[in-house]
Design goal:
The chain is α+β, with helices and mostly antiparallel strands and 228 residues long. It is built from 11 helices and 6 strands. The strands form 2 sheets. Strands 3-4-6-5 form a 4-stranded antiparallel sheet, covered by helices on one side. Strands 1-2 form a two-stranded antiparallel ribbon. The longest helix has 17 residues. The protein is globular. The structure holds zinc ion (ZN). Zinc ion binds next to loops.
Length: 228
């Protein structure tokens, strides 16, 4: 993870530039091809993948905050194919993000009340697992307003797809995620993760709101970081 922190520092000024640049026009506005000659469908995108460490983190959450019976109850809620993936996942492997989505939904049912409220807690727990000493130090150097610089680096370390763009707004930062898996459970868990990350960067009373969500029909997923 040392290289993650170092790279993030090196790209600090470049990313700052991005922050003050006006947003790019949508791709369609740049496309001068007459509509009749455009292909009707974009080429299929590969399924978003994530590192297996996420699977290990949520298992650790269940075993440390609940017990092995709750983990067994979680596994029993999965279909056989997903269960095989979950039980054989290794930290450095890459796995379908949607299998992870079904896993955290099962944990929410087995350990929570099944309304997905537990997922913010699980996200916060995962930050503790993901941050090593170097990255913690790096977060302390960053201000809460620049937290998305760290998040972008952490993201590409653990996820194969998805792109973040961020703008500063009064009271915080609005970060938009596009091109990732679409599932409410994933977004709730991510909001909890980002809120904890904001807290680690020294933010007082951090909150990450997520009301504009692709899973709920919005054009993109917007995470609104706010703090005092
Ligand atoms: Zn969302």
């Amino acid at each position: 993870m040392r290289s993650v922190a170092t790279n993030a520092k090196e790209s600090l000024s470049r990313d700052r530039l991005k922050l003050v640049m006006p947003p790019r026009p949508p791709a369609a506005a740049l496309d001068s091809t007459p509509p009749s000659t455009r292909t009707s469908r974009p080429p299929p995108q590969p399924a978003p993948l994530m590192k297996g460490i996420g699977f290990a983190n949520v298992k650790r959450y269940v075993l440390s905050q609940h017990d092995s019976q709750h983990w067994e109850n979680t596994l029993a809620l999965l279909n056989p194919a997903d269960r095989r993936v979950v039980e054989s996942a290794v930290a450095v492997g890459w796995y379908d993000v949607l299998v992870f989505a079904r896993l955290i939904r099962a944990i929410d049912k087995a350990c929570g009340s099944g309304n997905l409220d537990l997922l913010r807690q699980i996200g916060a727990f995962e930050v503790e697992q993901d941050l090593n000493r170097v990255l913690r130090l790096f977060l302390r150097i960053l201000s809460p307003a620049n937290i998305f610089l760290a998040e972008g680096k952490i993201w590409s370390h653990f996820q194969s797809a998805g792109r973040w763009t961020s703008i500063q707004v009064p009271g915080g930062v609005d970060a938009t995620l596009t091109g990732w898996a679409i599932d409410t459970a994933l977004c709730k868990e991510l909001a909890g993760y980002l809120e904890k990350l904001l807290q680690c960067a020294g933010a007082q009373a951090p909150h990450v709101g997520h009301t504009e969500c692709q899973a709920l029909g919005a054009p993109s997923c917007v995470f609104r970081y706010r703090w005092k």
